[in-house]
Structures are given as structure tokens and as C-alpha cells.
Amino acid sequence: xxxxxxxxxxxxxxxxxxxxxxxxxxxxxxxxxxxxxxxxxxxxxxxxxxxxxxxxxxxxxxxxxxxxxxxxxxxxxxxxxxxxxxxxxxxxxxxxxxxxxxxxxxxxxxxxxxxxxxxxxxxxxxxxxxxxxxxxxxxxxxxxxxxxxxxxxxxxxxxxxxxxxxxxxxxxxxxxxxxxxxxxxxxxxxxxxxxxxxxxxxxxxxxxxxxxxxxxxxxxxxxxxxxxxxxxxxxxxxxxxxxxxxxxxxxxxxxxxxxxxxxxxxxxxxxxxxxxxxxxxxxxxxxxxxxxxxxxxxxxxxxxxxxxxxxxxxxxxx
Length: 318
Description:
The protein is 47% helix and 12% strand. The protein is built from nine helices and seven strands; from the N terminus they run E-H-E-H-E-H-E-H-E-H-E-H-E-H-H-H. The radius of gyration is 25 Å and the shape is elongated.
């Protein structure tokens, strides 16, 4: 079963042309498939069109949100309701090309768990969309260690097992390949077609770059310190303790030269550095308690098993 998931927000003019293209491609390919439209609180005719499609085509499944929750939430809902062994998200504005789907599935057949689309010839505003996207993709690749040209392209193909347990927040849908990499997934990338928008309007602007940077910091933290947050907070706590000791020594040296303690800000800087160090260590301890509570209360394992041999279903962890 192939599951296609498509978030929709005020795309009444793009839904039917997109579905017709997808239907033609999937019918030609053969095999069981489904398409899950997630209506992200649209206030145009999109809900009516989607319900009509669901009535006419059993392959069409529709999830209606009570209000607009954003693309990440809509994509997460598509994954949750998907029943296929392969999940392919794509945009609902018609800018992705369904003709690329068979090529992505062929990559998965080669042994990859993720195939990411690369909008090599992107048909968007160069200043508002393309340039910030190039900068963001390079930054994400450097920080995450996952070398992709286009993290923001929604058109990707995933083996269901590498993303079914992932929970997304904020704008983190673009970091899905990174989460998949944490699960040990093999990732490939192919150039895909990209069409200029013919209806509706873009929901994103330059302010999205700041959100991406903040989410990237979160992802990096989760990657390196989720299991041992004390390593991060403790490191900075020690740095502030060292700074405090330096300020104290500097203060004593200035006093030996005849300066009073109140003549320089050094004593105050020593106190502030020491207190900041204490706060960092306490935050690290609290983070450790939260991490352990999370794993123990939900019976979360600290490892994931790929395969076993000659072991029963209940043996092992993960």
C-alpha cells in the first residue's frame, strides 16, 4: 500500500487538477494506494471539494481540522492516518509533480528508506523564497550532518517504519530526514520537477527563516544532548564557574594595586558568573530528571532494534 498525504489550506482551485494527476500516475503504476487530504482549517470551498472527492473515489481519505494548525500538524496527521508501508507527502498547491513519484519509489526499491526531492529548478520568487531557502539548506546540512540540497521540499518518500514514531512540532516537518537518519535510515535524493503556482497565494515569507533557525537549534540539541542534557548545561556551568574564579583573581590583583572593590565592576561580575554557573548546573539536573521521567513513565527504550534472529517477539528492548 502506498499512502500519499497532502495538507490543504485554501487551495480550492488546485485540489482537482492535483488529484487528477495523482490518480493518473497511481492508476498507471498499479497496486493498492490511498491519498489522504488533511484540510488544515480552510475557509474557502476546499472542504466541500474534498468531501465530494471522498464520496466519488474510495482511495480518497479526508481529515478535517477544526481550525488552522499549520503545515507541520497537517503533515503529522497525514502520517498518523496513513496505512501504507510507504508514505509520500506532497504539497497541495500543485507545485509538486506526481510524475516524480514512481522514480522516488524506485529509489526505495534500491534499499533506501528515504528519498528526498530536490527542486533543482525552483519556480518561486528568487529573493523571497529561493535565496533564503538556499542559505537555510546549507546551514541545516552543516549543522545536522545530513547532506541534502532541499530540506524544504515536501515531496519525499519514506518507509513508514522510519517516521511512524516521530512527533513533530513547530516548523519541524522539514527536518524529517534528520529524524529518519537518527533511526538509521539510508537517505537518497533526486531532482524533481517544480511548477510555478497557478492559483492561491504562498503562505510563507521571509519571517519563516527565523523559525527555521530556532527549530534547527532545537533539533541539534535533541541530537546531541537529549539523552544527557547535563553535558550541555554542566559544560556552561563549569565555564561560568571558571569565569567567576578569573574575576575573583582579577579583583584581588586590582586590590593589591590599591583599587577598592567598589572601584571596578569585577566583584559584581564574579558574583553574577558564579550564580549563572549554579543556575546552569541546576537546569542540567532538572533536565536529567525530566529525561528520565519521560523514558521511564512511557517505558521508552534508549535504543532501537533493527532486526533479530532466533529471538521471540518479546525479547529485547526498543
